[in-house]
What does this fold into?
Amino acid sequence: MKIKVLIVDDSALIRSVMREIINDQPDMEVVGVAPDPIAARDLIKQTNPDVLTLDVEMPRMDGLDFLERLMRLRPMPVVMVSSLTERGSEITLRALELGAVDFVTKPKISIQSGMREYGEMIADKVRTAARARITPRRIAPPQGAAAGSAELPSMRNPLISSEKLIIIGASTGGTEAIKDFLLQMPSDCPGILITQHMPEGFTRSFAKRLDSLCRISVNEAAGGERILPGHAFIAPGHSHLLLARSGANYVTKLDQGPPVNRHRPSVDVLFNSAAECAGKNAVGVILTGMGKDGAQGMLNMRQAGTYNFAQDEASCVVFGMPREAIAVGATHEVGALEKLPKMVLDYLHTHGSRALRV
It folds into this structure.
């Protein structure tokens, strides 16, 4: 049975191009198009779509307002169609917080040809959304400190905090999973490196958003930063992020080599660098995401002495990446997202002081 898609966008051109891309796929079909959320409400009832593509900024009702109501009254997989601007990226991150599965960006120039160029990516995101696990989320205010989050206790051991690293990889559903993970981190947690599949222009807004919410410092990696306790670095959308050594210090390194597993940044690239540079001094975490990026790299980490965790199926939006890592024998423990931060820190408290820097 084909995936039924409803397109909601105020641009007639975008509606036409999206319809063409989706109807060209053998496993999906457009069951309706709407110029605004008001018109979309009736079409949802009439067509019962499997996936909704939703423009961020529209007349009559803002896309975010509509999304919030939709996820409360009739939860369903939604893929946002966003402008590649700072404002567009901030709104899109809010949409993911409200429950959207993923997003695609409109090209800045030549929308018609640009959208067609990554038609395969759009189709993949629709397929992923159709398989996603949609669960009601706690809707947090758009800004503000994480006063209500359950911060885990301080590490109490400066040696562990300075000698150990936490290495995280994620994709679809990962922006919220990463946020939930980092919100529990105490201010003296080990340094953290993160690769989240996300295009250039969005990773900086993502890092700024996390930095405003978390007790630790969160930044988009620029390359060459010393990795210190209480600091997290996110791979920029234009480059692979790697762990490197500079004398006695761990530092970030960026690389603009070709995509790996169709991604740049790639989780495998980060994990492989952690295996090489940190070994038993790293803890690996693989979160929700589609595909197999990170599985082989996490296996290499395990073989180098790293202890690895995976998010469980029940708490994943998409269980692809954790499932692949588990299947190849790369993980030691599997847990629900809300429990993973404590599992990681408990392991470090118990075993962290036993390993010396390699």
Notes: The CA atoms of residues 45 and 74 lie 10 Å apart. Residues 86-98 form the longest helix (13 residues). The two ends are 53 Å apart (CA to CA). The chain has two domains: 3-131, 158-354.
